[in-house]
Amino acid sequence: MTEPAAVKAALKNQAVETPSWAYGNSGTRFKVFAQAGVPRTPQEKLEDAAKVHEFTGAAPTVALHIPWDKVDDYAALAEFAQDHGVKLGTVNSNTFQDDDYKLGSVCHPDAAVRRKALDHLFECVDIMDATGSRDLKLWFADGTNYPGQDDVRERQDRLAEALAAVYERLGDDQRLLLEYKFFEPAFYTTDVPDWGTAYAHCLKLGPRAQVVVDTGHHAPGTNIEFIVATLLREGRLGAFDFNSRFYADDDLMVGAADPFQLFRIMYEVIRGGGLTSDVAFMLDQCHNIEAKIPAIIRSVMNVQEATAKALLVDREALAVAQRSGDVLEANAVLMDAYNTDVRPLLAEVREELGLDGDPIAAYRRSGWAERITAERVGGQQAGWGA
Ligand code: PSV
Ligand code: MN
Questions:
Q1: What mean pLDDT do residues 161-174 have?
Q2: What is the pLDDT of residue 386?
Q3: Any transmembrane segments, and where (predicted)?
Q4: Would residue 37 count as lying in a domain?
Q5: For FRET with 23, which of 80, 279, 317, 330 sits at 20 to 30 Å CA-CA?
Q6: pLDDT confidence of 385, banded at 50, 70, 90?
């Protein structure tokens, strides 16, 4: 069993990056619901993100999405973040919300559209230079809807060409994170459908190209923890986009739909040394019907709970059971850790950090929700496409 002091130390060091877009309005293709107090500017999103960090102590960075978080002066935005106790994190590109991208972006059959998409990716690297961000996260909505629509092999060549150009443009301390998704918005093929395709491209690019595992981007029943173990073994797990799903890419609060899966993932992360390496733990969620800030706090807490349980696995007892072929005992060791109520331990960890043991209650008492509802009146609320 990991020493209690080591478990606490690991939990105190854990950081979860929150996505700027989770603070804005979101919904489904049927309806985007507006909520009172939602940020109107990237600065207001950072104010909300700062509250999540204030009450959890575990969300020190905020991911940007360009152009949703476009500003004139990114260095000033980084300073604004710093003044509020957080930092700007990963820069996410967006090559999916422009009419030109109907048939794809970097994989589009028309070279002019590919050039436009590449220029956007270069712009994102320029922004990283200004914000001091380490990671560029690339997700492409590219793909086809019908067999025969385009040459899927040629699309891979176009993709490889764009990725190579972006990789070349990165600074020595910057990374390219490639995210895969098996469907949506394209329904027949997507150009980066799975971890194998992402891994193959990253391998060609070089060591600073790494794979992103968005937990919502797999077919039902996929063993995500196996993918995590494999990518860690290969040194190519760059980041997580955490969220939960019941059916498709639901983007629900991580750990809400399947806390056991999150535990299994975190166990493989710890087993593979990923908790203390450069793996970035990010949320990629949309809070469509629930209050956003407490939902993000809850999500951070869910990651912490899964991590605490995974840290509590008695690895020595597990190894003994595994080596002796004691299937039931091996399973029991894992389940013992999973079934531990780690909430008191996490409350203690928070209190030792000078925080309230119950971040959601502390947030509710703070009056922040009432304040932003009263103050953020008028203007255009942030949301998809804003
Ligand atoms: C695509 O579904 C995705 O997971 C990518 O990470 C995008 O950048 C993000 O969602 C937008 O919410
Ligand atoms: Mn994602």
A1: 98
A2: 44
A3: none
A4: yes
A5: 279
A6: low
Mutate to test the pocket of ligand 1, among 92, 212, 218, 243 (most ligand atoms within 8 A of CB): 92
- pLDDT of 376 reads 98
Output the pLDDT for position 3: 83
Q: What is the pTM of this model?
A: 0.98
- Atom of ligand 1 at shortest distance to CA of 93? 8
Confidence of residue 384 (pLDDT cuts 50, 70, 90): confident
Between the CA of 216 and the centroid of ligand 2 the distance, in Å, is 8
Q: Rounded CA gap, 242 and 179, in Å? A: 12
CATH number at residue 243: 3.20.20.150
- 290 occurs within a structural domain: yes
For ligand 2, the distance from its centroid to the CA atom of residue 64, given in whole angstroms, is 12
**β-sheet bridge partners, residue 62:** 18, 88
The pLDDT assigned to 283 comes to 98
Residues in contact with ligand 1 (CB, 6 Å cut-off): 21, 92, 139, 179, 181, 214, 241, 249, 284
> Can you read off the two tokens belonging to residue 378?
């008028």
Residue 19 has φ and ψ, to the nearest 5°, of -90, 130
Range of the domain at 123: 15-305
Number of domains in the chain: 1
Domain-embedded: residue 341: no
Rounded Cα distance, 281 and 46, in Å: 18
What SS3 string covers the chain? CCCHHHHHHHHHHCCCEEEHHHHCEEECCCCEECCCCCCCCHHHHHHHHHHHHHHHCCCCEEEEECCCCCCCCHHHHHHHHHHCCCEEEEEECCCCCCHHHHHCCCCCCCHHHHHHHHHHHHHHHHHHHHHCCCEEEECCCCEECCCCCCCHHHHHHHHHHHHHHHHHHCCCCCEEEEECCCCCCCCCEECCCCHHHHHHHHHHHCCCEEEEEECCCCCCCCCHHHHHHHHHHCCCEEEEEECECCCCCCCECCCCCCHHHHHHHHHHHHHCCHHHCCCEEEECCCCCCCCHHHHHHHHHHHHHHHHHHHHCCCHHHHHHHHHCCCHHHHHHHHHHHHCCCCHHHHHHHHHHCCCCCCHHHHHHHHCHHHHHHHHCCCCCCCECCC
Domain presence at residue 34 = yes
